[in-house]
Amino acid sequence: LQLVESGGGLVQSGGSLTLSCAASGNTLDDYAIGWFRQSPGKEREIMSCISSSSRSTNYVDSVKGRFTISRDNAKDTVYLQMTSLKPEDTAVYYCKAFVFPRDYWGQGTQVTVSS
For residue 78, what is the DSSP state? Predict the structure, then answer.
């Protein structure tokens, strides 16, 4: 399974971006997906996750109400819609597909929010 993130870029504070995580080599149907981010000098942290069926989604408090995770299993793609972006959201964003005991990471996409 290979994952490729896209959709990052430079946006002004208050703006929006939608990230995509596209899978190839295998279907995403059985995998839960998490979106993580890592800022310079900080550890990678989880932002949101979604179950394989989409029935369950979770968010960390810092993005709750601003970010929305969704998936389209027919397209083997997971999305992270980000609104009301803040400069502190600047980071490299990664998606991770996991089902015990396997997990797979994408290469990341840069999101930069200017003030």
Answer: E
- Summarised one tens digit per residue, pLDDT across range 72-112 is 999 999 999 999 999 999 999 999 999 989 999 999 999 99
DSSP, residue by residue, 99-111: ETTEEEE---EEE
Of 15, 22, 31, the C-alpha closest to 99 is: 31
Sign, Cα dihedral of 13, 63, 9, 37 = positive
- CA–CA distance, 109 with 56 (Å, rounded to integer): 24
Alpha helices in 6-86 (DSSP H): none
Q: Is 113 exposed, middle or buried (0-12, 13-18, 19+ CB in 10 A)?
A: buried
Angstrom distance (rounded) from CA 51 to CA 102: 15
pLDDT at 107: 97
Six-digit token string for 18: 């939608």
What's 9's DSSP letter?
E
3-state secondary structure of 41: coil
